[in-house]
């Protein structure tokens, strides 16, 4: 069938057909058609959407992606025919049925993810199929390798290359902003690529973006690392493991991070930058991705095994995840807290301790310090101000201002303080609820949004004391977050009323009771 092009300014994938043309072709919404340009001979497949009003019969609505692929112009005539289904759909179904995927199967799926052959809902199907029928170690290795092979890789001619990564899941986990400059200040190289928020209210890339650009090519990452010793960039922009970010985009709304894909997501980024040694932070807690020490050990073993298969030396730290790291949750609040620690502030101690433990493991793995002495070296580099100086250099090389000070960073202008409604000690913090409130307030997209905790486990509060403050860049978002905080009550104070269950049945006081 020949159709006339109408360019439609929509960024997503897809092709818009009049319902009658779709019927003549024998396709339904979601089916694929092959569009070829007789003039250039170029062809590409895309999935169909249909309309009865937006496009006239005889025309084809071409979205941005296909326009770019085929270099199409308004009113040009193209040839359209039914396209084959991508073979990877059957492979995803294989996983849905609980079968094991071979290396070639996984290569096929990842290639189709990277080339945008699979639609977002089809990628979601892959995520869900491996969420229900977990990936085994061979499948995780294949996924990691396929993610690396379909993207750019960096080779450093100096070494050792050090890296760190957290599996996430604990709010306020801003330690990369402290660990990376500590490691770079020691003279080691750390080309750190991070993802944006997956289950949280601010990934490291979202945080760093408050201070400077985070989108660079693999070559730029390499050059900047050689110059300063370290960078903190967004993995999704580098074309390092490009499938990773496309998968994460589908996980974000569900707040899920399937274990096998998580391991591959982390390790692909490490492998692609040529890391020799890697320290992995696994937060463990009631509301974390990993809920018990036992589960944490199992996951650590998987990271170490995969490291061996890929020739990287990996060590994992199971860390305390029952409470947020530090007190700040959300991009600007977290940057402010991390920067103030680098500037020499002595608190929050949990943040300093955790950062030094992880940097210490990396030092020991890289042979920079003896076993058991790495954290001490990390603390020295932090206390001496060398890590702070290095952080400012990293900001500058990425295009930000090296004069930035923590007291110049202000969270959102709209805020609300939640206060204790009884005396007592803080006995529980619900990470999921805190993240939810910060996201409802606008984090991570609104950089000023988030939650600042005034009290953590064991803090003694009197009625009326502040427990946490919610910040937002927009008033309506703050209002929604306050509503959510009232409903979720993320901080439990001993002696506090948990909920009141009203009796809504009609009742007249004093009415005499009758005994039947
Ligand atoms: O949103 P959730 O699931 O908490 O985790 C995502 C965060 O965890 C990792 O941190 P890092 O890169 O090691 O600092 C990721 O890269 C990302 O920034
Ligand atoms: N799935 C992931 C978890 C944490 N970090 C990542 O980069 N990816």
Automatic annotation (TrEMBL):
Record: residues binding AMP: 169, 195-200, 204, 265, 289
Pfam families: Glycos_trans_3N, Glycos_transf_3, PYNP_C
Keyword presence, Glycosyltransferase: yes
Keyword Magnesium: no
Catalytic reaction(s) noted: CMP + phosphate = cytosine + alpha-D-ribose 1,5-bisphosphate; AMP + phosphate = alpha-D-ribose 1,5-bisphosphate + adenine; UMP + phosphate = alpha-D-ribose 1,5-bisphosphate + uracil
One GO term (biological process): AMP catabolic process
Keywords: Glycosyltransferase, Transferase
Classification via Gene3D superfamilies: 1.20.970.50, 2.40.40.20, Nucleoside phosphorylase/phosphoribosyltransferase catalytic domain, Pyrimidine nucleoside phosphorylase-like, C-terminal domain
Active site: 257
Single GO cellular component term: cytosol
EC number: 2.4.2.57
Domain Pyrimidine nucleoside phosphorylase C-terminal: 425-492
One MF annotation (Gene Ontology) recorded for this entry: 1,4-alpha-oligoglucan phosphorylase activity
EC supergroup of this enzyme: transferase
InterPro entries: AMP_phosphorylase, Glycosyl_Trfase_fam3, Glycosyl_Trfase_fam3_N_dom, Glycosyl_Trfase_fam3_N_dom_sf, Nuc_phospho_transferase, PYNP-like_C_sf, PYNP_C, Pyrmidine_PPase_CS
Residue stretches spanning the membrane: none
Summary of the function given for this chain in its UniProt record: Catalyzes the conversion of AMP and phosphate to adenine and ribose 1,5-bisphosphate (R15P). Exhibits phosphorylase activity toward CMP and UMP in addition to AMP. Functions in an archaeal AMP degradation pathway, together with R15P isomerase and RubisCO.
PANTHER family cross-referenced by the UniProt entry: THYMIDINE PHOSPHORYLASE
NCBIfam families assigned: AMP_phos, ARCH_P_rylase, PRK04350.1
HAMAP family for this protein: AMP_phosphorylase
Assigned protein family: Belongs to the thymidine/pyrimidine-nucleoside phosphorylase family. Type 2 subfamily.
Name this polypeptide is given: AMP phosphorylase
Origin species: Methanospirillum stamsii
